[in-house]
Amino acid sequence: MLQHRPFVNNDLQTICSFPQNMEELFYFFPKATYPLTPAQLKMAIDQRSDSTVVEQNGDVAGFANFYRWQDKTCCVGNVIVSPLTRGRGVAKYLIKTMIHLASTRHAAKSIEISCFNHNTAGILLYRKLGFKPFDIEERQGPNGRRVALIHMCHKMDKT
């Protein structure tokens, strides 16, 4: 069974263990250095809003927050799911939870999320949940390669 709750500091170490390599960390938190440390994650969380944890059977299974929450738009960031629970609906539940929080806590009319082009599972999930691409930004990946950051938007009146 999945449920969500606000992030607490005791979650830091567990969430830091989710990225299994430099590429996964880049998808989750592009500015961080691998391996992710609680100090790096805490610094990001302190600058963000609505840091949310999804639990499955009492264990931390996913995490996300908003890096912007003004002008009737919330932007979801730091999305990650535990390697032990991937493919079991945690990400879908997490993103639906963030959509609900954006609507109820911030009166958002839209919610934005960005996903790197190599993260096929993320792109397909967001599209399935009603997000539509609206821009593509060139970035540099962790190994110096060019990557595309696909920006997607979900309009709340279409939920």
Query: What is the subunit organization of this protein?
Result: single chain
Largest β sheet strand count, sense and barrel closure: 7 strands, mixed
CATH class of the domain at 2-112: Alpha Beta
DSSP strand (E) fraction?
Answer: 35-45%
Q: Please trace the helix and strand order, writing H or E for each element.
A: EHHHEEEHEHEE
**Low-pLDDT residue spans:** none
Question: What's the architecture of the domain at 2-112, going by CATH?
Answer: 3-Layer(aba) Sandwich
Overall radius of gyration: 15 Å
Q: Could you give the order of strands across the largest sheet? A: 1-2-3-4-5-7-6
- Span of the ends, CA to CA: 23 Å
Q: Provide the CATH superfamily of the domain at 2-112.
A: Gcn5-related N-acetyltransferase (GNAT)
Which fold name corresponds to the CATH topology of the domain at 2-112? Aminopeptidase
| Overall body shape | globular
